Every structure is written in C-alpha cells, then in structure tokens.
Amino acid sequence: MDILYQNLLAFTWQDLVMILIGCLLIYLAIAKEMEPSLLLPMGFGTILVNIPFSDALVGPIKELYEAGIANELFPLLLFIGIGAMIDFGPLLSNPKLMLFGAAAQFGIFFTLCMASIFFPEIDAASIAIIGAADGPTSIAVANTLGSKYVGAITVAAYSYMALVPIIQPPVIKLLTTKKERMIRMPYEQKSVSKLTRIMFPIIITVVASAIVPQATALIGFLMFGNLIRECGVLDSLSETAQKVLANLITIFLGISVAFNMTSEQFLKFDTLLILALGLIAFIVDTAGGVLFAKLLNLFSKKKINPMIGAAGISAFPMSGRIVHKMGLEADPQNFLLMHSIGVNVSGQIASVIAGGIILNLFSK
Amino acid sequence: MNLLSLMLAATTAPTTEAAPQMFFQPVNFVTNLQYMGIGMLVIFAVIGIIILATLLINYLFSD
User: Fold this and answer.
1) Residue B62 is nearest to which of A102, A193, A211, comparing CB atoms?
2) Gap between the Cα atoms of A88 and A82, Å rounded
3) Contacts of residue A116 in chain B, CB cutoff 8 Å?
4) Average confidence (pLDDT) over A147-176
C-alpha cells in the first residue's frame, strides 16, 4: 500500500495543472476542431509526461524526440507531405503574387525585435519564427537554434494557426475601408504547362538554397513533395505522401513535442510572454501583407484588393479562404479565391525562406 | 541613521539568496532592428529572383 501512497503523493500542483492543459488541448482538438491532428496527440503526450515517475517520458517519448525532433527529421518529412498537397498553379499563372508572401513575413522580424527585449537573442529568434505561421518550420528552427522553449513555441504556432479565422478579420477590417475590400480582381485563367510545373520546384530549391543555404533542407523537402505531385509518374507516392506519410508523421510529431511540455519547462511566466509575442507576430504579419498591397496600389493603375496581402501568411489554406470570404461579404460578386490562394502558397515558400534567414543570422 | 543611509544599506546589503533574474533589455529592440532590415531585404531579394525565374520558365516552357 505504501508504494501507492508514495506515487499518489508525488503529484504536485504543477503536474495537475499540466494534465489540465493536456486535457484542454484535447478539448480544443475535439470540440473546437482546432488543428486536431496535432493538438490531440500533443495534449495526450502532455498528460503522459506529467505523471510522476512516468516511464513514457524517459522511454518512448524521449526516444521519439531524439529520433525525430532533435534532429529535425519529423518536420522535414512532414514537409514532403505538405509539398505534395500544394498546387502552385495559381501562383505560376501570376508569379508577382509572391511579393505578398514576402511582405507578410514582416511579423517574424518585428517579433524578433520585440522578443529580444525579454529573451536572449537565440530564444527571441526562435519565438519570432512563430510568425512563419507554419508549425514544422517553427519546430525545426527553434530546435536547430537550441531554444529551451520549443514546447511553448509549438503550442503557440499551432494554436494561432487554428485561430487565424479569429485573428485576421479584425486586423484586415481595421486597415482597409469597405471600398478597398470591394475592389474586384478579375482572374485570367492562364494555362501552365506540365514542364513549368516540374521545373518550378527544382528552380525554387536551387535559387533559395543558393542564397540561403540554411533553408536547403526545409525548402528542398517541401519542393521534393511537390515534384512527386507534379511529375505525373508517381501518383501513388504522391497520394502516400499527402495522406499516409503526413498523418503518420503528424502523430509522432505531436506526441513527441510533448517531451518539452513538462511542468518545469512549461509553467513559467515566459510561456505567457511567448503566447503574447506569437499573437503579435500573426497580427503584424497580417498588417504587413495588407499595408504592402496598399503601398503597391499607390503606384499601380490596376488596383489590388489589399485583403489578398493578408493571405501571405503561411497558414494554408485557411488564410486564403478567409480573404475570399471577406471579399464576398463586402461584395457578393467579388471572387478573390484564386488570387488569395496564390498568395497563400507563396506565403508557404516565403515562410520557409524566412526560417532559413533566421537560421543564417543566428545559428552558431 | 537617516532614511537615505537606511535605503543605501538595504540596497547594498549582501543577500543570502540570489533573486531570479528577469531579462528585460528594451534597448535590444533598437539594436535588433538591423536584423529586421537585413531579413526583409534578403527575403524580397530571394522572392524577386524566384519571380524572375518563374516568369522565365513560364515564357520558355509555355504550351
């Protein structure tokens, strides 16, 4: 009987709070459908690692963490699946849309400056990458830089991605007039040849990696997935990458990220600060994209609906859909979907490049 | 002993336990603005080159 008491008495209030946080993540995943594929495994993993004397923490979860996250393998493998899911068609028919993807990474660098007030440089850079609005990039960058806040950064990145429909609309409305939201952008369907679709991932990989070598793995795996999709001879591999591989890695990624969700590492004032800074990153990203579009409108004859700039954050495809929906709210005949999705996929590319730039600037 | 010397004694007296240090360096915002400039410049440069390359492959390999 003594051993039972000893185990039960080993529970601290911090362990119980973390178990409640784990339950909250599971609740958000199931009841609110917030990134369920990641938040559910992460929530359950959080429960597993906060039970005193848990053999899960020192055993399988630690092993999975060492095997897949500490060496960045899981985020990179997930990128193959994401690359296979993305259709770059709308972007290829209007490549200039990529500028908005670049502008919407402003939140990363602004948050870097903000976070450096409260955190040492390496941690500030890792926190800033929450603004990439791209979970695998956030995990890979924070890990490579050796930040001790990987758990909090991952929770912030995935939570805010799920909250994009709540975060973005007020920022967009604040920065645009109804007249601007009503600007129509007719979509001219241009055919994109198969050879162009095949060449695109190869060229992106070579160009981006040549300038930012630290982004080679991130951009390379993303584009490798896309090449599998577009080559036309690997349909079954493409389907596997999109479904089986992505799902499998997401399960392992979610549960092993929980390695960093112990009460000693998570229950700190720093975690609240990281969540606040992550929110700032998403807001400034959105503002950066919208304001850049407004800037372009000052010089361009053909007006751009500034809302499409907001889709430049990487949260794909939610952000593109939100902009389309807001366009329809302003004018029921205003169809922005093709433009906003084009900008949205460019945000995916730009966020990975931004991750490489952060690594280039801060990795030892 | 006046109030000033009491306060001075309190601030200079050795403490038995080190208080947890809060990292707060507002000046870092300004010093790190250079990274904002470099980062945005590089990202626009890379994206610019990718746009040019994409326009080129669109032109060369269009149906």
Assistant:
1) A193
2) 12
3) 25, 28-29, 31-32
4) 90
